[in-house]
From TrEMBL:
Residues 134-265 form the N-acetyltransferase domain. GO terms for molecular function: acyltransferase activity, transferring groups other than amino-acyl groups. It comes from Sporolactobacillus shoreae. This is GNAT family N-acetyltransferase. Keywords: Transferase. It comes from the Bacteria. Pfam families: GNAT_acetyltran (PF12746).
Length: 265
């Protein structure tokens, strides 16, 4: 049985999703930020005959993310019907195996599909600090503009529309943090987080300015970030689609959860 969830279901939903904080980073983060009664977020749950949750679906604006502990208990047709009936649809995202069960029942024309690897680092892994650096700084919220400026100069982020004021607000609220290395009073390498929850954090925006590559700057920033998150028992996770970047992350202890797909309409 599928029904829309409410505040009274918070404990059950967070217990259901919370045992995999990296996989459910966005679901947990959106519930923490918006709750169950806002226009921005809606959460549904599918229950078995004993009243236990078997899968959930979260809507953030026009974007949907499904999750089931057991893939065999995810009813693709039922969730496809919920998504279609919910109104405007812009994107469905999540682990490829789970989203794949829903896609055949979405009667809309796909605009695009992006696939990347999703990786996490287990909290109990030791951190090799041989490549740690003493010149890594934590950015203040007021420095958001220069962090965004650096990323705008990197080809990989050329199409990004990151707003310094949004980054600043997220840093002030504790949803994001940034570590960086500077040369000549300007950042040359940065690493940020986004969507931080009580149990996990998404690492994003890893980049180094042209001319400063291959000097261990990004690795140094990553080690500082991982150490900070580890101290708070927050599991680091990240997306990547570049095999070379994947090699760096795996040297630092990240392992693939699976493939993450984003299907736009």
């Amino acid at each position: 049985m599928i029904r829309q969830l409410a505040e009274k279901d918070r404990e059950a939903v967070l217990a259901f999703a919370g045992d995999r904080p990296a996989e459910n980073l966005f679901i947990i983060g959106d519930i923490d930020a918006f709750g169950f009664d806002s226009d921005t977020v809606t959460v549904w749950g599918d229950f078995d005959e004993s009243g236990s949750l078997t899968s959930i679906l979260l809507r953030y604006k026009e974007n949907f993310i499904p999750y089931a502990r057991n893939i065999d208990q995810l009813d693709g047709k039922a969730w496809g019907d919920v998504i279609i009936q919910a109104g405007p649809l812009r994107m469905i995202s999540g682990l490829k195996t789970q989203v794949g069960k829903i896609l055949p029942y979405i009667s809309r024309t796909e605009k695009g599909k992006k696939l990347c690897f999703y990786a996490k680092r287990e909290d109990d892994l030791p951190l090799n600090k041989d490549a740690a650096r003493g010149d890594v700084k934590m950015a203040f919220p007021e420095e958001a503009d220069k962090i965004v400026q650096l990323r705008s100069e990197i080809a990989e982020f050329a199409d990004s529309s990151e707003d310094p004021s949004d980054l600043q607000k997220n840093m002030e609220k504790g949803f994001s943090r940034t570590y960086y290395i500077e040369e000549k009073d300007e950042p040359v390498s940065v690493v940020s987080t986004t969507a931080e929850t009580r149990g996990a954090a998404m690492i994003v925006g890893v980049c180094t300015k042209k001319g400063y590559e291959h000097r261990g700057f990004a690795t140094g920033c990553l080690i500082k970030m991982i150490a900070a998150l580890k101290a708070e028992h927050k599991q680091p996770c990240l997306f990547y689609d570049n095999p070379e970047a994947g090699k760096i992350y795996k040297k630092l202890g990240f392992s693939d959860i699976g493939e993450w797909v984003m299907v736009s309409y």
